[in-house]
Amino acid sequence: MKAISFADFGPANQVLKVSDWPTPAPGPGEVLVKLHTTGVNPSDVKKRAGGFPNLLDDGAVIPHSDGAGVIEGVGEWGAHFTDRRACFCLSSAVRALAWYGSRIRGDRYLTRT
User: Residue 63 sits in which domain range?
Assistant: First the structure.
C-alpha cells in the first residue's frame, strides 16, 4: 500500500515522504479499513515536530489517528462487522495517512455508520 510517513522530526514539507508499506492483515477482533479521508489533530503535529522523542525508536511512522473509509477485511472474532461497510475510526493504531488503516480494534475504535 502507499503511505505517507516520516523517519525524522521536522516541518511537514521536509520530513513527510510517500512510500510503499506492506498492506496489514487484521488480527483477532480487528478490522482492515480502506481509508478514504483523514484529519490532522494537534497531537499529530506535535508528534511530527518531535514532541514524543521516542516515537521513531522503531523506525519510520505513518501519522494521523483518525480516518474514515470502508471495511475491507475482518479478523477472527470480528463477525459483527461486515466487509464494505462505511465506518469512522480513531486510534493511535489507525495510521490514517495510508491507504489502509491497520490493526484497528473493531470493538474499541470503530464507529459503524
Answer: 2-112
